[in-house]
Amino acid sequence: MTTEITDPATGTALAVEAMERNVDRIRRALESMAERMADLPPLMDARPEAKADGARLVLQAWTEDEVHAWARAFGETAEAVEEDGYHGGPALRTTSEFSVCGVPVRVVSYETFTASQWAARGTSAVAA
To answer: What is the pLDDT of residues 22-34, one digit of tens each?
Structure first.
């Protein structure tokens, strides 16, 4: 029986090359998105994730309405889910997922409310 020993330096170099290819995929996706992004609400954060086994772009919006705007701009819908917030009060998590140039994109917002703010929203906060 023979045991194959993998050279760590070679494995690391191959992983870095794969990550670099995924960074390029994210760059192409962002370039493709640029024209539509110009008219969209600003983001709280953007987190490109390039790993050896894939690429992903997570965009953090401020509000539910902003996630819906991003979703519409890319021909998608968003889903809002009511939940208990981290602080114990009501919260709303809104997400939309789509792909640009083969790169998965996730737009998300997480809003927390006081009881009075939640009540002022009126009916269910979940939008289509």
So the answer is: 999 999 999 999 9
In a domain, 37, yes or no: yes
Residue 72's pLDDT band, with cuts at 50, 70 and 90, is: very high
Split into its structural domains, the chain has a count of: 1
β-pair partners for 106:
58, 97
Question: Does residue 127 belong to any structural domain of this protein?
Answer: no
User: Of 60, 50, 62, 94, which Cα lies nearest the Cα of 76?
Assistant: 94
What is the pLDDT, as a whole number, of residue 126? Answer: 44
Task: Give me the helices (H) in 1-128, please.
Answer: 8-37, 64-73, 115-120
Q: Taking Cα atoms as reference points, which of 19, 17, 4 lies closest to residue 56?
A: 19
In a domain? residue 90:
yes
Mean pLDDT, rounded, of the chain: 87
Using alpha carbons only, what angle is made at residue 14 by residues 13 and 19, rounded to the nearest 5 degrees?
A: 95
Token pair, residue 67, equals: 């996630």
Structural domain containing residue 89: 8-120
